[in-house]
Specification:
Blueprint: H1 3-22, E1 26-39, E2 45-48, E3 54-59, E4 63-68, E5 76-82, E6 86-88, E7 97-99, E8 101-108, E9 111-118, E10 121-128, E11 134-141
Antiparallel strand pairs: 1-2, 1-3, 1-11, 3-4, 4-5, 5-8, 6-7, 8-9, 9-10, 10-11
């Protein structure tokens, strides 16, 4: 068998394997990047201008995949190492609350990435191996698009949860 034939067979096998894995991942939701902050080695934080970007997030319970909403065939993969909740403060100096969520990491090409994911927020921290700069990206759960929301006639009446008229 010549080299081009072997390459074609290998490409086909890899493509079929990737297709088989895709069905194992369940969607978590779509998140919209709201801000990015670059922190240098001296502790100086600089806001990085960024347009809102929609991300699709899915998981199989062991791995988290993140892709841009427009290109779901290419993703970044993170391995979950904690799933017992995320501690957060809603106001500086306020009480610490624990909310359901996971933490995951990714190490590729000398770059370490840390993912913090809850039902409504996504924080991605990137630590380049040969740089004193750290990039922190914050995203929030995207509101459902108008075509995903139920029509007005499908929603329950304002008076009660089951749609019966209010007394």
């Amino acid at each position: 068998m010549n080299l081009p034939s072997r390459a074609a067979i290998l490409a086909l096998v890899l493509a079929l394997g990737a297709r088989a894995e895709e069905g194992d991942f369940d969607p978590v939701g779509e998140f919209v990047i709201r801000s990015q902050t670059k922190i240098n080695g001296q502790g100086k934080a600089v806001q990085v201008p960024i347009k809102p970007l929609k991300l699709s997030v899915s998981t199989d319970g062991v791995t988290v995949r993140i892709s841009t909403a427009s290109q779901t065939d290419g993703w970044s993969t993170f391995t979950i190492y904690r799933s017992d909740g995320i501690g957060r403060q809603n106001v500086p100096g306020g009480p610490l609350e624990v909310v359901p969520g996971v933490q995951a990491t990714s190490d590729h090409g000398g770059v370490h990435k840390h993912l913090r994911l809850t039902r409504d927020t996504l924080t991605l921290t990137v630590f380049p191996g040969v740089s004193d700069q750290t990039l922190v990206t914050h995203a929030v759960l995207a509101p459902p698009s108008p075509d995903e929301q139920p029509a007005a006639d499908e929603q329950p009446a304002a008076g009660s949860p089951d749609g019966s008229p209010a007394p």
